[in-house]
Automatic annotation (TrEMBL):
CDD domains referenced in this protein's UniProt entry, alphabetically: PBP2_Bug27
Record keywords: Receptor, Signal
Record Pfam families: TctC
Recorded family membership: Belongs to the UPF0065 (bug) family.
Leader sequence segment: 1-33
Protein name per its UniProtKB record: Extra-cytoplasmic solute receptor family protein 30
Superkingdom in the source lineage: Bacteria
The keyword Signal belongs to this UniProt entry's keyword annotation: yes
Organism field: Achromobacter arsenitoxydans SY8
InterPro entries in UniProt: BUG, Bug_dom1
Protein backbone atom coordinates (compact mmCIF):
# COMPACT_ATOMS: atom_id res chain seq x y z
CA UNK A 1 0.00 0.00 0.00
CA UNK A 2 1.27 3.47 -0.91
CA UNK A 3 1.98 5.72 2.03
CA UNK A 4 0.27 9.14 1.48
CA UNK A 5 3.13 10.72 3.36
CA UNK A 6 5.62 9.71 0.66
CA UNK A 7 3.66 11.87 -1.81
CA UNK A 8 2.97 14.66 0.63
CA UNK A 9 6.62 15.31 1.48
CA UNK A 10 7.81 16.11 -2.09
CA UNK A 11 4.74 18.27 -2.64
CA UNK A 12 5.42 20.13 0.58
CA UNK A 13 9.06 20.64 -0.40
CA UNK A 14 7.94 21.89 -3.84
CA UNK A 15 5.45 24.31 -2.30
CA UNK A 16 8.13 25.56 0.07
CA UNK A 17 10.55 26.05 -2.83
CA UNK A 18 7.94 27.92 -4.86
CA UNK A 19 7.07 30.10 -1.91
CA UNK A 20 10.74 30.85 -1.30
CA UNK A 21 11.28 31.69 -4.97
CA UNK A 22 8.31 34.06 -4.95
CA UNK A 23 9.51 35.69 -1.76
CA UNK A 24 13.00 36.15 -3.18
CA UNK A 25 11.56 37.53 -6.40
CA UNK A 26 9.40 39.98 -4.48
CA UNK A 27 12.35 41.01 -2.33
CA UNK A 28 14.50 41.50 -5.43
CA UNK A 29 11.80 43.66 -7.03
CA UNK A 30 11.51 45.74 -3.88
CA UNK A 31 15.29 46.27 -3.76
CA UNK A 32 15.33 47.13 -7.46
CA UNK A 33 12.57 49.70 -6.95
CA UNK A 34 14.41 51.22 -3.99
CA UNK A 35 17.59 51.62 -6.05
CA UNK A 36 15.70 52.69 -9.19
CA UNK A 37 16.67 54.79 -11.04
CA UNK A 38 20.47 54.85 -10.91
CA UNK A 39 20.99 56.05 -14.48
CA UNK A 40 19.14 58.29 -16.99
CA UNK A 41 15.79 57.16 -18.37
CA UNK A 42 14.51 57.63 -21.90
CA UNK A 43 10.98 58.42 -22.97
CA UNK A 44 10.32 57.55 -26.60
CA UNK A 45 7.80 59.65 -28.53
CA UNK A 46 6.28 58.33 -31.75
CA UNK A 47 5.89 61.74 -33.37
CA UNK A 48 8.15 64.56 -34.52
CA UNK A 49 9.27 67.40 -32.24
CA UNK A 50 6.85 70.28 -31.80
CA UNK A 51 3.59 68.30 -31.78
CA UNK A 52 1.26 67.63 -28.86
CA UNK A 53 2.96 64.39 -27.82
CA UNK A 54 6.38 66.01 -27.83
CA UNK A 55 5.16 68.96 -25.73
CA UNK A 56 3.69 66.64 -23.10
CA UNK A 57 6.75 64.37 -23.01
CA UNK A 58 9.18 67.25 -22.48
CA UNK A 59 7.10 68.92 -19.77
CA UNK A 60 6.45 65.68 -17.89
CA UNK A 61 9.95 64.32 -18.41
CA UNK A 62 11.57 67.43 -16.93
CA UNK A 63 9.44 67.19 -13.78
CA UNK A 64 10.01 63.44 -13.44
CA UNK A 65 13.75 64.08 -13.55
CA UNK A 66 13.41 66.36 -10.52
CA UNK A 67 11.64 63.75 -8.39
CA UNK A 68 13.59 60.72 -9.61
CA UNK A 69 17.00 62.36 -9.48
CA UNK A 70 17.89 61.20 -12.99
CA UNK A 71 17.58 62.82 -16.40
CA UNK A 72 14.66 61.75 -18.61
CA UNK A 73 15.86 61.96 -22.19
CA UNK A 74 13.16 62.50 -24.81
CA UNK A 75 13.75 60.44 -27.94
CA UNK A 76 11.63 61.16 -31.04
CA UNK A 77 11.06 58.18 -33.37
CA UNK A 78 8.41 59.45 -35.76
CA UNK A 79 6.50 57.39 -38.28
CA UNK A 80 3.83 54.71 -38.75
CA UNK A 81 1.37 56.31 -36.31
CA UNK A 82 3.79 55.93 -33.43
CA UNK A 83 4.14 52.16 -33.87
CA UNK A 84 7.88 52.36 -34.66
CA UNK A 85 8.50 54.00 -31.29
CA UNK A 86 6.12 51.61 -29.52
CA UNK A 87 7.84 48.56 -30.97
CA UNK A 88 11.21 49.92 -29.89
CA UNK A 89 10.08 50.21 -26.27
CA UNK A 90 8.21 46.90 -26.32
CA UNK A 91 11.50 45.19 -27.23
CA UNK A 92 13.50 47.06 -24.58
CA UNK A 93 14.51 45.56 -21.22
CA UNK A 94 11.65 45.54 -18.72
CA UNK A 95 13.58 47.53 -16.13
CA UNK A 96 11.78 50.89 -16.17
CA UNK A 97 14.50 52.78 -18.01
CA UNK A 98 12.70 52.76 -21.37
CA UNK A 99 9.27 54.39 -21.47
CA UNK A 100 6.83 55.13 -24.27
CA UNK A 101 4.55 58.16 -24.42
CA UNK A 102 1.63 56.53 -26.19
CA UNK A 103 -1.69 57.81 -27.46
CA UNK A 104 -4.87 56.11 -28.57
CA UNK A 105 -3.67 56.32 -32.17
CA UNK A 106 -0.90 53.85 -31.37
CA UNK A 107 -2.32 51.83 -28.51
CA UNK A 108 -6.00 51.38 -29.41
CA UNK A 109 -6.54 52.47 -33.04
CA UNK A 110 -3.51 50.98 -34.79
CA UNK A 111 -4.32 47.41 -33.66
CA UNK A 112 -7.67 47.64 -35.47
CA UNK A 113 -6.10 49.06 -38.64
CA UNK A 114 -2.96 46.95 -38.73
CA UNK A 115 -3.61 43.42 -37.43
CA UNK A 116 -0.01 42.39 -38.20
CA UNK A 117 1.62 44.86 -35.80
CA UNK A 118 4.79 43.45 -34.22
CA UNK A 119 3.40 44.16 -30.75
CA UNK A 120 0.12 43.83 -28.88
CA UNK A 121 -0.64 46.81 -26.64
CA UNK A 122 -2.52 44.76 -24.05
CA UNK A 123 0.22 42.12 -23.78
CA UNK A 124 3.51 43.89 -24.46
CA UNK A 125 3.10 46.97 -22.26
CA UNK A 126 2.48 47.89 -18.65
CA UNK A 127 0.36 51.08 -18.47
CA UNK A 128 1.97 53.51 -16.01
CA UNK A 129 -0.24 56.61 -16.02
CA UNK A 130 -2.65 58.42 -18.31
CA UNK A 131 -1.22 61.94 -18.36
CA UNK A 132 -3.59 64.25 -20.25
CA UNK A 133 -6.55 64.35 -22.56
CA UNK A 134 -7.76 67.02 -24.98
CA UNK A 135 -10.25 67.63 -27.75
CA UNK A 136 -9.34 68.23 -31.36
CA UNK A 137 -10.34 71.42 -33.12
CA UNK A 138 -11.53 71.73 -36.70
CA UNK A 139 -9.61 74.58 -38.32
CA UNK A 140 -9.47 75.99 -41.83
CA UNK A 141 -7.04 78.23 -43.66
CA UNK A 142 -9.26 81.31 -44.23
CA UNK A 143 -7.31 82.21 -47.36
CA UNK A 144 -8.40 78.91 -48.96
CA UNK A 145 -11.83 78.32 -47.45
CA UNK A 146 -14.11 81.21 -46.59
CA UNK A 147 -16.07 79.14 -44.06
CA UNK A 148 -16.97 80.51 -40.64
CA UNK A 149 -19.13 77.60 -39.50
CA UNK A 150 -19.09 73.82 -39.83
CA UNK A 151 -22.17 74.03 -42.03
CA UNK A 152 -20.40 76.40 -44.43
CA UNK A 153 -17.41 74.04 -44.64
CA UNK A 154 -19.79 71.12 -45.20
CA UNK A 155 -21.49 72.97 -48.04
CA UNK A 156 -18.09 73.80 -49.52
CA UNK A 157 -17.01 70.15 -49.41
CA UNK A 158 -20.22 68.96 -51.05
CA UNK A 159 -19.94 71.54 -53.84
CA UNK A 160 -16.31 70.62 -54.49
CA UNK A 161 -17.20 67.07 -55.50
CA UNK A 162 -16.03 63.65 -54.34
CA UNK A 163 -12.38 63.60 -53.30
CA UNK A 164 -11.56 67.05 -54.72
CA UNK A 165 -10.99 68.61 -51.30
CA UNK A 166 -8.33 67.32 -48.92
CA UNK A 167 -7.57 67.49 -45.22
CA UNK A 168 -4.30 67.03 -43.31
CA UNK A 169 -3.49 64.84 -40.32
CA UNK A 170 -0.48 63.91 -38.22
CA UNK A 171 -0.55 60.38 -39.63
CA UNK A 172 -2.69 57.44 -40.60
CA UNK A 173 -4.70 55.96 -37.77
CA UNK A 174 -4.32 58.95 -35.47
CA UNK A 175 -7.27 60.75 -33.87
CA UNK A 176 -7.01 63.50 -36.49
CA UNK A 177 -7.39 60.90 -39.25
CA UNK A 178 -10.30 59.24 -37.43
CA UNK A 179 -12.01 62.60 -36.88
CA UNK A 180 -11.50 63.56 -40.53
CA UNK A 181 -12.97 60.30 -41.80
CA UNK A 182 -15.86 60.40 -39.33
CA UNK A 183 -16.69 63.95 -40.47
CA UNK A 184 -16.49 62.96 -44.16
CA UNK A 185 -18.65 59.90 -43.43
CA UNK A 186 -21.32 62.07 -41.82
CA UNK A 187 -21.09 64.66 -44.60
CA UNK A 188 -21.58 61.83 -47.08
CA UNK A 189 -18.84 62.92 -49.47
CA UNK A 190 -15.37 61.51 -50.06
CA UNK A 191 -12.50 63.74 -48.94
CA UNK A 192 -8.84 63.03 -49.66
CA UNK A 193 -6.74 62.31 -46.58
CA UNK A 194 -3.19 63.73 -46.63
CA UNK A 195 -1.16 62.13 -43.80
CA UNK A 196 2.07 63.65 -42.49
CA UNK A 197 4.83 62.42 -40.18
CA UNK A 198 3.73 64.46 -37.23
CA UNK A 199 1.40 67.35 -36.49
CA UNK A 200 3.98 70.08 -37.02
CA UNK A 201 4.37 69.15 -40.68
CA UNK A 202 0.61 68.81 -41.14
CA UNK A 203 -0.31 72.17 -39.65
CA UNK A 204 2.58 73.83 -41.53
CA UNK A 205 1.02 72.78 -44.83
CA UNK A 206 -2.39 74.04 -43.75
CA UNK A 207 -0.81 77.35 -42.76
CA UNK A 208 1.10 77.39 -46.05
CA UNK A 209 -2.08 77.00 -48.09
CA UNK A 210 -1.32 73.52 -49.42
CA UNK A 211 -4.20 71.80 -47.58
CA UNK A 212 -7.41 73.67 -46.68
CA UNK A 213 -8.35 72.18 -43.31
CA UNK A 214 -7.56 69.69 -40.58
CA UNK A 215 -8.54 68.48 -37.14
CA UNK A 216 -5.67 69.71 -34.97
CA UNK A 217 -4.77 69.20 -31.34
CA UNK A 218 -6.05 72.19 -29.40
CA UNK A 219 -2.69 73.27 -27.88
CA UNK A 220 -0.93 73.24 -31.27
CA UNK A 221 -3.71 75.16 -33.04
CA UNK A 222 -4.42 77.87 -30.43
CA UNK A 223 -1.41 80.13 -31.22
CA UNK A 224 -2.30 80.13 -34.93
CA UNK A 225 -5.93 80.84 -34.10
CA UNK A 226 -4.86 83.80 -31.95
CA UNK A 227 -2.76 85.15 -34.82
CA UNK A 228 -5.64 84.82 -37.27
CA UNK A 229 -3.77 82.43 -39.55
CA UNK A 230 -6.26 79.65 -38.81
CA UNK A 231 -10.00 79.94 -38.27
CA UNK A 232 -11.62 77.61 -35.70
CA UNK A 233 -14.98 76.08 -36.57
CA UNK A 234 -15.67 73.52 -33.83
CA UNK A 235 -14.13 71.20 -31.26
CA UNK A 236 -14.61 67.45 -31.08
CA UNK A 237 -15.59 67.02 -27.42
CA UNK A 238 -19.24 66.77 -26.42
CA UNK A 239 -18.94 69.88 -24.25
CA UNK A 240 -17.28 73.20 -25.01
CA UNK A 241 -13.73 73.48 -23.76
CA UNK A 242 -13.17 76.07 -20.98
CA UNK A 243 -9.94 77.13 -22.71
CA UNK A 244 -11.92 78.15 -25.79
CA UNK A 245 -15.55 78.54 -24.63
CA UNK A 246 -16.52 80.60 -27.67
CA UNK A 247 -15.91 77.67 -30.04
CA UNK A 248 -18.95 75.37 -30.51
CA UNK A 249 -18.77 71.60 -30.56
CA UNK A 250 -19.36 69.43 -33.62
CA UNK A 251 -22.38 68.06 -31.78
CA UNK A 252 -23.81 71.58 -31.51
CA UNK A 253 -23.01 72.18 -35.17
CA UNK A 254 -25.38 69.54 -36.51
CA UNK A 255 -23.27 66.39 -35.99
CA UNK A 256 -24.97 64.62 -33.11
CA UNK A 257 -22.76 62.60 -30.74
CA UNK A 258 -19.60 63.53 -32.66
CA UNK A 259 -16.76 62.93 -30.20
CA UNK A 260 -13.10 62.23 -30.92
CA UNK A 261 -10.64 63.27 -28.25
CA UNK A 262 -6.98 62.42 -27.92
CA UNK A 263 -4.99 61.36 -24.90
CA UNK A 264 -1.38 60.69 -23.95
CA UNK A 265 -0.11 58.24 -21.38
CA UNK A 266 3.13 56.63 -20.29
CA UNK A 267 3.78 52.92 -20.84
CA UNK A 268 6.62 50.63 -19.77
CA UNK A 269 7.50 47.26 -21.32
CA UNK A 270 5.45 44.33 -20.04
CA UNK A 271 6.92 42.50 -17.02
CA UNK A 272 8.49 45.67 -15.65
CA UNK A 273 8.51 45.01 -11.87
CA UNK A 274 5.37 46.31 -10.23
CA UNK A 275 7.26 48.38 -7.63
CA UNK A 276 9.14 50.13 -10.45
CA UNK A 277 5.91 50.82 -12.36
CA UNK A 278 4.34 52.22 -9.20
CA UNK A 279 7.37 54.43 -8.55
CA UNK A 280 7.19 55.80 -12.09
CA UNK A 281 3.45 56.35 -11.74
CA UNK A 282 3.93 58.27 -8.48
CA UNK A 283 6.62 60.40 -10.12
CA UNK A 284 4.27 61.35 -12.96
CA UNK A 285 1.37 62.12 -10.65
CA UNK A 286 3.62 64.18 -8.38
CA UNK A 287 4.71 66.14 -11.44
CA UNK A 288 1.12 66.73 -12.53
CA UNK A 289 0.12 67.92 -9.04
CA UNK A 290 2.53 70.84 -9.16
CA UNK A 291 1.00 74.24 -9.80
CA UNK A 292 3.47 75.38 -12.44
CA UNK A 293 3.00 72.12 -14.34
CA UNK A 294 -0.78 72.48 -14.26
CA UNK A 295 -0.48 76.04 -15.50
CA UNK A 296 1.82 75.10 -18.39
CA UNK A 297 -0.32 72.16 -19.51
CA UNK A 298 -3.48 74.22 -19.09
CA UNK A 299 -2.06 77.00 -21.23
CA UNK A 300 -1.32 74.41 -23.91
CA UNK A 301 -4.96 73.26 -23.91
CA UNK A 302 -4.51 69.98 -22.06
CA UNK A 303 -6.77 68.57 -19.36
CA UNK A 304 -4.74 66.73 -16.71
CA UNK A 305 -5.72 63.16 -15.78
CA UNK A 306 -2.83 61.68 -13.76
CA UNK A 307 -4.26 58.20 -13.18
CA UNK A 308 -2.47 55.38 -11.42
CA UNK A 309 -1.40 52.20 -13.21
CA UNK A 310 -4.51 50.18 -12.32
CA UNK A 311 -6.93 52.87 -13.51
CA UNK A 312 -4.98 53.43 -16.72
CA UNK A 313 -4.96 49.68 -17.41
CA UNK A 314 -8.75 49.55 -17.06
CA UNK A 315 -9.13 52.60 -19.31
CA UNK A 316 -7.01 51.12 -22.13
CA UNK A 317 -8.91 47.83 -21.84
CA UNK A 318 -12.21 49.66 -22.36
CA UNK A 319 -10.89 51.84 -25.21
CA UNK A 320 -9.70 48.96 -27.40
CA UNK A 321 -13.15 47.55 -28.27
CA UNK A 322 -14.77 51.01 -28.51
CA UNK A 323 -12.40 52.24 -31.19
CA UNK A 324 -12.45 48.91 -32.99
CA UNK A 325 -16.22 49.20 -33.46
CA UNK A 326 -15.95 52.85 -34.59
CA UNK A 327 -13.30 52.05 -37.21
CA UNK A 328 -15.36 49.14 -38.49
CA UNK A 329 -18.54 51.21 -38.72
CA UNK A 330 -16.84 54.09 -40.57
CA UNK A 331 -15.08 51.64 -42.86
CA UNK A 332 -11.56 53.01 -42.41
CA UNK A 333 -8.93 50.86 -44.14
CA UNK A 334 -5.12 51.08 -44.20
CA UNK A 335 -3.96 53.33 -47.03
Amino acid sequence: MNNPCTHARPMARMATAIGLALALSGAASAVMAEEFPNKPLRMVVGFAPGGGADIVARLVGAKMAESLGQQVVIENRAGATGTIAADNVARSPADGYSLFLGSQSTMVVAPSLFPTLPFKPEKDFAPVSQVVTMPLILVVNPALVNARTVQELTDHIRKSGDGTLSYASSGQGGPQHIAGELYAHKVGTKVTHVPYKGESAAIADVLGGHVPYMFANLPVALPHISSGKLRPLAITSLKRDPKAPQIPTLAESGFKDFEVSTWYGVFAPANTPRPVVDKLSRSIRTALDQGDMQAKLGEQGFTIVGSDSAAFTRFVGAELPRWSVLIRDIGIKPE
